[in-house]
Fold:
Amino acid sequence: MTADLKAKAEAKSNEVQAKLLLFQENEITEHHIYRALAGFTRDAANREVLLKISGEELRHYQVWKKHSGKDVSPAFFKHWFYVVVSWLFGLTFGIKLMERGEKGAQLAYGGIKELVPEAGELLEQETEHERLLIGMINEERLVYIGSVVLGLNDALVEFTGALAGFTFALGKPRLVGVAGLIMGVSASLSMAASEYLSTKSESESRDPLKASLYTGAAYVITVVALVAPFLLFASAYLALAVTLLCAVFLILVFTFYFSVVKEIGFKRHFFEMLFISLGVAFLSFVIGFLARRFLQVDF
Structure:
């Protein structure tokens, strides 16, 4: 019985040691991530907060090291992944994506508090980190994210439906592509102009010109992605299938980005946008079929 208890105690000790080393790796990795993010951010206030949090992460690492008695190297892939993601998609997205991983670490801290008294204090500091991060973000792309949403949503809903209707009404992929491209560019200019006038009359915090550029750019990028298959494939129906897949991918990527940045549920918004876009595409396809049949259009 004594040997059994000793074995259990040893196993428990090994489990605690493994957790300590994991916590150490997490803290030292995030120390380097925050320091790297502070190095490329242009906002002085953001840089100051990032450096402060980087220093706290290093102090947390030292606490865990005191109990484990070992040094741990940062996780190379995690470090560069979040640095690159933040550089490509914005500081807010990169940090909040990393925060999602921190929630699991915070739960683990709670399970080890009996053995490491400092764990409770570290948990409180991690929570404070989140408050600081949420309060510090001041990115232009977030100020104008509503304009991006407008351009992207409008292009996905209207344009996916229009291309589906053109596919059955016109039949030839290149003809559908050219018609769609002309329509898309015109619509993007119209949307940009509408956003300019709307922002100018309603908002005091946003620049109307920038708002219109964000809306127009989001619309054009979406149009190019959806039209491209009709210029690349010989079959109009194959091109439509690829276009619908592109639309689903764009909805998936943007909804995920939006859900992370705004901290909202992903599934409901994804399926809502997917249902609307594909529903409009289906109805437009039916309209195109009826138009070609009853108006006797042939090419």
